[in-house]
Amino acid sequence: MVFRYLTAGESHGPALVGILDGIPARLALDVNRINETLARRQGGYGRGGRMKIERDTVEFLAGVRGGSTLGSPIAVLVRNRDFDTPHVRALMDPLTGGGAPLTNPRPGHADYAGALKYRHTDLRNVLERASARETTMRVALGAICAQFLEALGIRTRSYVHRIGDVAAPELDEWSQSDVEASEVRCPDAPSAQRMIAAIDAAKAAGDTLGGTFVVRIDGVPVGVGSNRQPDTRLDGVLAGALMGMQTVKAVEVGLGADVAARAGSQAHDTFALDGENVVRGSNRAGGIEGGMSNGQPIVLRVSVKPIPTLMNALPSVNLHDKTDAPATIVRSDVCVVPAAGIVGEAMVRLALVGPVLEKYGGDSIEETRDNLTRANAAATALFESAQEGE
Question: What CATH number is attached to the domain comprising 154?
Fold first, then answer.
């Protein structure tokens, strides 16, 4: 079973569109949950004025009938309400759009490299697609994937660990209701208040802040992913998906970079028996060993850079005039780390569906469930028969 997806659309264009190909048939979709996930992406302390305009909701164009998937490609649309603003439509109409070009690239953004790559003299032709607004569609498609994975007992959640220089305590467990109740999606209330103060200070200074969020995946069976080839290793697949986010600069699995300073005796997860069950002494590997899931929670830590658009603009140049000039200022956010966690959940879900389907297959959700049940039973029987053979 081949699973793939594509998105298209510009930040201020008429709409964002996506195609999700490979989701099995007969999966009942809760559209309200998809829209709720889109609303979560729009939230978070430190967001800009654009989020007061958009009210993202999903429209299905193909692949769904009567609320259930058909097994054919799923086509999805999310409209950009900002496009209905007359001056935005004048800039971005696909056939008649135009206006004065943007000429001053922002340090840290795609503006400069994209202009040279695609030979654009107007940076807007680059930044419209490079904008994180595009992640709206990834979140919509990821929310569909979440319902497929949950049908197999696999659940994904996230929380904000750091904003700027304010870090919350390391958490092995947390209440997701506490996360969603927090304006910065941090379950530790004292840390959350310090994060909010840091965002306020950055806004007053015309600056921006990055940070770190943690994604945890529970319920992944043993053996998803592979050690056969580099591109099938689950840690590489998940890390690559997260690095595909616009603001991400680093992804860590389990202990991540901290493992480099540890001796082997303090770096790995021991095995033990609890009755007849095999248990682990820790989860330092973050749920992945040898490129395969090992049955423990998969834990990923993701570092996000500050947004490149600063109200106190960084030094740049005017590419047309060849003069020094401040970087372009467009409407933007002060901090997107809380929203980035929602996008991170979506990217993990989109990345995980392929390896799950590769292992369990199925043209319908019932067939996929049956394959998973049989695989789990066969794995249990393997060691039972080995014990009897002794």
Answer: 3.60.150.10
